[in-house]
Amino acid sequence: MEFTPELRREYRRLFRTAKVRPERKPLVQQVAASLATHRSRYERAGGPIGVPWWFVAIIHSLEASQNFHTHLHNGDPLSGKTVHVPAGRPPGDPPFTWVESARDALTFDGLGDVGGWSTSRALFRFEGFNGFGYRKSTIDIPSPYLWSFSQHYTRGKFASDGVYDRNLVSQQCGAAVLLRTMVDDGIVATA
Questions:
Q1: Nearest alpha carbon to residue 29 among 185, 188, 190
Q2: Domain residues for 111?
Q3: Total-model pTM
Q4: Which range is least confidently modeled, 97-106, 152-161, 176-185?
């Protein structure tokens, strides 16, 4: 999928108007503050390849529940290569350090040294990391990977790879909602 002017406008509009659901706000603020405490680790993983620490942090929350003993790719244990998509990562022999595995996840997904980390580009990259399946004409909802816990998302989720359930509700805070909270709380200054 290409980052078009229409997508840029959509991401800007949704981000500007995003509000954390009141019942979720304490949890979202707790997660955002927790991510900030590990900033130096996230900088070690993303900094050398030009990925902002907050992007790494949010992916870490979504893919690995902030567990530094698992791969950033998908939350599989660092004691071996990834088993889930993408399987067989990173190259080399296990066990892997969290930083080397995280850097592999970022470069594998084409996020290293790409430049241009505006909010709308970051949201496009978050969505791409998870996949653009929610944009299919048969589904067409704001991705819960971005907007869960905000007014922009109510229900509909892939229960597993390729299996969509229109009644399933995501129980995970979306990337855009975390970023919105980190900006609002002064943890992150985005372009």
A1: 185
A2: 5-184
A3: 0.95
A4: 152-161
Per DSSP, the residues of 123-139 read HHHHHHHH-SGGGSTTT
- The C-alpha atoms of residue 165 and residue 190 are separated, in whole angstroms, by 34
Residue 150 CA to residue 99 CA, distance in Å, equals: 31
Is residue 189 in a domain? no
Give the largest CA-CA distance in the chain. 45
The answer as to whether 190 is a domain residue is: no
Contact between 122 and 55 under an 8 Å Cβ cutoff? The reply is yes
Orientation of helix 53-64 relative to helix 25-37, angle to 10°: 120
**C-beta neighbour count of 31 within 10 angstroms:** 23
pLDDT mean across residues, the chain: 95
- Asked whether the bond before 86 is cis by omega within 30 degrees of 0, the reply is yes
Q: Is residue 77 part of a domain?
A: yes
Q: Is residue 116 part of a domain?
A: yes
CB atoms within 10 A of CB 76: 20
- The structure tokens 């975390």 sit at 178
